[in-house]
Amino acid sequence: DSFSRADLDRLEKNKARYEAEARALRQNARDAERALSRLTDRSIAIAQESRRQEQRAAETETRLATLEAEAEEKQAALTRDRAALEDLMAALMILSSRQPPALAVHPDNAGDAARAALLMAEITPELTARADAFARDLEALNALRVEVETERASLSASQEDLYLRRLEIDALTAEQRKVWREFDQQAAQLEARSKR
User: Fold this and answer.
1) Predicted TM-score of the model (pTM)
2) For the segment 60-98, what is each residue's pLDDT rounded down to a tens digit?
3) Which of 124, 154, 175, 192 has its CA 20 to 30 A from that of 53?
4) Measured between alpha carbons, how far is residue 52 from residues 56, 147, 154, 157 in Å?
């Protein structure tokens, strides 16, 4: 078998074209490798942040459960003391009506009126202290409710952010698969051409 000059020229052109394609494919492979490296680094960073977000979400859920339990306890305690608090409020209303304590009993019995005045004078500080304690408990309960709502909002935001991170990881994973498929296809094409 002898080759003509035209055959040799054609083979030289094909060889030059294949070498150029091989260089281009090697460059594409290097580009794909760098792209994959960047995608992998980004995926790792997002996965680490996702783990931190999951940890924060778990901590927030724990805090929320604790706060809700505490708020329920305070609400139950206030409900249990309702009768006593109603008595306290009634006594305070009587005291605040600006009537002298002696008129709180029947006017025909001056001894009872004096004893009632002394009793009211003795229990007024206790009633005031109980009223102040009740007001503080109500304030604490309201503050707990605000804190519970704040934690719920924080948890919701964390869960939303975590969901978005997972979507980003999924998108990056799909992009990595696409780059690998393209790289494999190019490698297969190069291998097929080299066998011609």
Assistant:
1) 0.51
2) 888 888 888 888 888 887 777 776 767 766 766 765 564
3) 175
4) 6, 22, 14, 14
